[in-house]
Amino acid sequence: MNQKKPDDIIAAAAKVFSVKGYHAATVQDIAGAVGLLKGSLYHHFRSKEELLYLVIREPIARLYATVKEIVQSDLPAGDKLRRAAAAHVEALHDHFPHLFVYLRESDDVQRRFRAATRLSPKLYEVLWQQILREGVKSGEFRSDVDVTVVSYGLLGMLNWLYKWYRPGGRLSPDQIAKQFAALSLGGLASPGRSRRRLATSRRRRD
Question: Which residues on neighbouring strands pair with residue 43, listed in sequence order?
């Protein structure tokens, strides 16, 4: 008898959704991917939509919790941003293709998921905005930073990974996160800090 664990089915569903998209994928596609009959799948899950929620709920909840811990730490804002960026990229890598499924789906699917799980992106955006506000307040970041706009820009850059990232590529998740953090912090740094960093760099070369 072909016994499949729920986790095996969820992993198969993630792969099917990532290739075909949620709407185009069928329960038969998912059942076939794990060697089950369509009817057997319903012994484990009520619907395709329930499978979608199970594919993405836990990875998103873990990411939110990780970044919340970073925000609540005593680190300087720049270090928090670096670690939050690393956590975001690592989550996309560790839960590939689960989180990619969520990012590629329509607003309607995402809205239903948020209503069912209460995991709103607004909660995540607030965490990033808190890092930015701390950096502005401490003088680490420029005083003219628009916290809302910049938070959207940072998350847009990170989430766009779903368009091009594949595990085993030229750069590791850590290397990608460092590139993103360097780009972001270079634009956010207050003028005084930028001048001091440049002077330090020149002294080291001399």
Answer: none
